[in-house]
Amino acid sequence: MSELQLPPSRGLSRRRFLGGLAGSALLLAGCGGGEGSSRANRTFANEAEKWRQYDGFKLTFVTENTPPSTGIKQLVDRGDFKNLTGIDVEILQQDLPVMLQKAELDLRSGGTTYDLIYAQDKPVTSVLADYLEDLRPYMEDDSLPQADGGYDEGTWYPNYLDVASYAYSDRLISLPYDAADAVFCYRRDLFEQYAGQFQSEFGYPMQYGPDTTWKNVLDFATFFNRLNASDPTVPYGMGLHLGQFAWTTQLDVQRMLYSHGQWREFDIDDVQGSKDPGATRWGDDQSIRGLELYKALFDQSTPDALSLGTVEVADAYNAGKIAMLTQYHEFAASFEDPANAGGGGRTAYDVCPKGDRQYLAGNGELVNGTNCGIGGISINAAASEDQKRAAYMFAVWATNVENQAENLKISGGTPTRLAVGDRPEVEQAQGQPYGTGDTGRVGPSQYPNALTFPAVTVGMADPNAVLGPKIPKFNQYVTIVANEIQAMCAGNSDPEATAKVIQSRTDELHGA
Amino acid sequence: MTTNPRTGTRDDVTQVQDDRADVRGDDLLPGPAVDARDQVVRGRGSRIAGVVITAFLGLYVIWTLVPFYIMITSSFKASDAAFALPPEGDWGGAVSQLFVFSPTTEHYRGLFAQGEFERYFTNSVVAAVASAVISVVFGTTAAYAISRGRFRGKRDLYFWIISTRMAPVVAVTVPLYAIFKNFALLNTLPALILAYTVFNLPFAIWILKGFFDSVSYEIEEAYMVDGHSRWQALWKIIPLVAPGLAAVVVLCILLAWNDFIFAAVMGGEAAKTLPVATQGLKSASGIEWGQIMAAGVVTVAPMLLLGIVIRKYMVQGLTMGAVKQ
Amino acid sequence: MAVDTATPGAVLGTPRPNTPRARRYLAPLLLPAVILLALLSIYPFVWLIYMSFHAVGLAPGAPSEFVGLDNWQRMFTDSQYWASWGVLARYSVVSMVLEVGLGTLLAILLNRSKHEKLLITVLLMPMMMAPVVAGLLWQYLYNGTFGWYFWGLRSVGLLDEGTILGSADTALWAIVAVDVWEWTPLVALIVLSGLKLVPQDQLEASWMDGAGPVRSFFQVALPSIKGSLMIAILLRFMDNIRIIDHFIALTGGGPANSTKVLPLYLYEQSFSFFELGYGASIALTLLLVTILFGKLVVNRFEEREPRPSKKDEELV
């Protein structure tokens, strides 16, 4: 990763992070850090002994049923963690809405069914922040084993720590554990095949790169849909995320809007969020322009776009029915499967499209708006002191470089540690460094997800990444957004009315 | 065939008793002789009508069975490739896709190998059977008392019992959740068993009362005259309602087994049942249709078997006694 | 086979134990069930009322806060609440019309079929399937990439644009189809039992007279099956309020809330957003409607049962 020009990271958050460490040191001095624990502040002869201090304990980790957790479960099942610590870990995997329901029911009622919670940044963390343990004292605790790479912001992929670890305060409540970052995926074979025809019709080449705008993507999609009208074997243009899961619909619109003047939904800090977000920005000119663009893309999508959610749109792409889409980078593993009609070395991965001046209201910056769901691993604050310390050891273990790399290998995980990308075999799997020559990555590869890492590192860095909004009623908010956008796409209302309805309903939700 | 004696149209008491006693008979819907029915159609000479009727019934059977066929075959199809559809309008391709494939048990092995599916199966069995047993035991005594007793407010008691059975599941889930939380019952099988009893107990009372009503009181009287106590007399007439008890057990199991909402909200991992586990196979990174179909087969197969066993009482149970044989 | 529109089971005019001595036996028989049921239904019901006037806190240290009529006021001004009643009504009415129409036709044909027993076994099958599994199965059949029903509808040209569950115009009707698939047989079997009450010779005579199947149905059969039809309709209406598993599995209420029936909205408010107090208010209104329907059903059941005479009651 060394040759990459990473944009400077947010000074603010690093400062806050360090400040947090100082604060936690004070806290430790004040209360001894591990009250109620017989093992806190003990000295151990060596690291191995530190790892074994909770021999015989049992932990329960509730998480999502996605590949990164399946990979960690495989590592646990084959005894990696048990051999190191003597701790049994039960990993419960659920569909995210169900997982959230379970975790929320337990944590909100002060339960301790789960010691460890998969804290998907906005749907879980911003809702349950108050019930998650502050990890800073643990990081400073010499009687606990710590991660090799440390926890500094620079050891993670850009912004991951900011997204996953904070909500409403300086408390560090989560370690980045897995990630779903939006990248642009397109059928390179088709882009090459129809390059000439597109150029003659639209007057510019059909090539994708970091400067390709949403307007260009709309042109590409229009072109493919025209071809499809006369030849059904050509895929439709653009895939969208409009199905059942409201959050992914909100993300789909959000990254497009952010591309245009870094438009954000609320006037709040992107990292910390706010429990009282106040009036939303929905309903302003930029939101209306953005929805016009979204509707235009919808019209150049598949006819069944309204029923395609994140999973279904990937199925449709794999079946060769769609030429391009923004998708979360963990899906590269399935896109590279040679058995799929659209997959197996035909897909290129790049950063999400840039905003287009034509859809910009005012004169903000045009960026490659990218968003994500960073899954953190968090500890139930209601658990006993020793359970929490044991849980912390698992969190450290699950997010260290070694296991993140192993997970990538065995299950198509999505590492959060930058150092994983620096490993020679993974670096090689990524192809050329970003920004040199042709930027789209193509497979095949032993580490298909690695093909997306160059795009991820650029997309998730400033100024492209949009991290928020972290608000307590996040799930209600995205339900409003998704419902109204679906209604707009179904032809029940126009972009302006839609933006206004989202505004009034959201403000009603927040009493603004 | 009998009509309701209360309508007073026909049949005397003995006939009703005979019908009730003949529970081992397997004829689901005893009706007039078969040949008479055929004559009606042929007698009219309308062969066309016969063809139309057969065609309609045939189509309806196909419409009913096709989802089962697709579920079962899909659960034996290997990879996503086997799930691909032929081009639209390619009926030949469709036929070969639907009927010709090399079956594999990988989805079933997957279900039971990686997961805790055996445990979910056991949870389903325990929750369903326990709730059925509780409901039938308490339901039997209550139904007997209601059937034999005359007391003030019987009709109101009745209505209260039946309306409990009709309450919207979600509406009941909200307070039950709060209550079970207070008693630290969440995420346990006892919580599910109690929740199912909310619906199964009134159901058992309701149906079993009908069975007791049809047993003549003189039989118990005779026992009591012989010196048996009332409890002994009740015990003696249990064999006469045994088919009803069996049917109610199965119907209670069916209702509990097929529940989703209670188990999803209150079951947790420790008390996860098959329907919840099946729904849980959907994930944000891919839907394994083969495995979901296999889980569906595992969930529905035991109920199909039970359904055939008590086919005779199934209709009565599903209509809450509005219809009976 | 009989349709018993009173209570299940034929009540025989046998003497009943009315003496105080007999009642001593009745109480221990009756009370366990009644107490258990009371704990599981009246206690929750009181809770529900309590919750509807509170902002319910889940945490042990955070008790519920009394909010007066806030939840109720919110409900009456919540446009989605009323829209969800509308979706529920549309869904119920359409599935009802289809199920009653198809079910009656099926019953008539079954009544004259030689293969009645076999056919009934087949018809029972969908009813044995857990509704959430049925929902998942049909979601697969409707799927735009793998679904055979999607493929079939496209191939015969019945579906031009969009997918079945993806369009607000078709999603609700797609779930209606699942309901029809699973529960039409129930209607058919109820109606069939009613038809069995019609003396076969009457039906035949009517046919012989040349009345034709349609007229003989309306003149002879319909009057006798009216009671069973009513029961079928009420039971199905109540189940539509009771069970939302099809919706959870198939659409989750989308697209654009077009399939968000009221019980599903209640589920979302209570168990996705944890607005348990508001959920309780919605639950109470649903409960009220169900109890009204329940009263109608029970009245049907009991219609012909002679009310216990005053004298009987005075004995107790």
Task: Please provide a written account of the structure.
The complex is a heterotrimer of chains A (512), B (325) and C (316). By secondary structure, chain A is α/β, with parallel strands linked by helices. Helices cover 43% and strands 11% of the residues of chain A. Chain A has a domain at 39-179 and 372-422: D-Maltodextrin-Binding Protein, domain 2 (3-Layer(aba) Sandwich). In chain A, strands 1, 2, 3, 4, 5, 6, 7 and 8 form an 8-stranded mixed beta sheet that branches. In chain A, α12 packs across α21. Chain A is globular and about 75 Å long. Chain B has 2 domains: 32-104, no CATH class; 115-318, MetI-like fold. Chain B is globular, with a radius of gyration of 25 Å. Chain B has a two-stranded antiparallel ribbon with strand order 1-2. Chain B has helices at 13-21, 34-43, 47-75, 91-99, 106-114, 117-148, 154-166, 169-182, 189-213, 217-225, 230-257, 261-267, 274-279, 289-309, 311-318; strands at residues 282-283, 286-287, 323-324. Helices cover 69% and strands 2% of the residues of chain C. Mean pLDDT of chain C is 80; it is low at 1-15 and 304-316. Chain C contains 13 helices and 3 strands; from the N terminus they run βαββαααααααααααα. Chain C has helices at residues 20-52, 70-77, 79-111, 116-124, 131-142, 148-155, 171-195, 200-208, 212-242, 245-250, 262-271, 276-302, 310-315, and strands spanning 2-3, 54-55, 65-66. Chain C is mainly α. Chains B and C meet through α1, α2, α3, α4 and α6 of B and β1, α1, α3, α4 and α5 of C.
Any descriptors?
heterotrimer, A: 512 residues, alpha/beta, D-Maltodextrin-Binding Protein, domain 2, 8-stranded mixed β-sheet, 43% helix, 11% strand, disordered N terminus, B: 325 residues, mainly alpha, MetI-like fold, 2 domains, two-stranded antiparallel sheet, 15 helices, 3 strands, 70% helix
Number of strands of chain B: 3
Helix and strand run of chain B: HHHHHHHHHHHHHEEHHE
Uncertain ranges of chain A: 1-35
Structural class assignment of chain B: mainly alpha
Main β sheet profile of chain A: 8 strands, mixed
Question: Could you name the CATH topology of one domain in chain A?
Answer: D-Maltodextrin-Binding Protein, domain 2
Q: Looking at this structure, what is the CATH superfamily of one domain in chain A?
A: Periplasmic binding protein-like II
Hey, roughly how much beta strand do the residues of chain B contain?
under 5%
- Please write the CATH class name of one domain in chain A: Alpha Beta
